[in-house]
Amino acid sequence: MPFPLVSSAPPSLDVWSLVMQAGPMAKAVLLTLIIFSVASWGVAAERFRRFSRAEKESRRFLERFHRGGGLAAIQEETEEFQWSPLADIYRAGFREISLNPPPPGEPLKGEGLEAVDRILRKNAVMQMTELERSLGFLATTASATPFIGLFGTVWGIMNAFRGIGSSGTASLAAYAPGIAEALVATAAGLGAAIPAVILYNHFQGRLRMMDSLIDEFEADLVHRLQGRRS
Fold it and tell me: Pick from 169, 164, 182: which is nearest to 8 by CA?
């Protein structure tokens, strides 16, 4: 009767098992990467909502602005556009005009026009700064997490080779789990960095479009004020 072959099964190499078998440093690295990844997705979700509202209301406000009418009438209607950077810029300019209004029927010129232009530019910078809020975290995640993952990999490989040196065993079955465990950190770092890069570039593109829209609106508003008749 033949005897069954006895073999020592190598440790499981599925990702979850590798994570559970990892040492304290590897788990700390993975936890850090998870925190970065979750936080970056949270930032992206919040910015998606903010940009979508800003773009939608800005389009509606521009339609209202280009329909014409008195400045005061437009000002009253801006209250329904609370998320639009353009409406906020208009409100800031209108407040400045109200402080030093020109004579009825006369265009705005000289120091009054320069003051309004400064207010418009200042408010435009504030609006762009608000839209850029938290995007720096996406850039940090994109640049830092690959190196955090690489640190975890180097640390894991050092531990794997130290274990090989201690046991004196150099077979593939002996050090493959340790190397695989170390490489999980690199994969986790890339998994956090790649979406962050894509999301950051996406929002930068939307920022550039909004910046161009704000510049165009400022020019249109100043031009209208120079020929103001109401």
Answer: 169
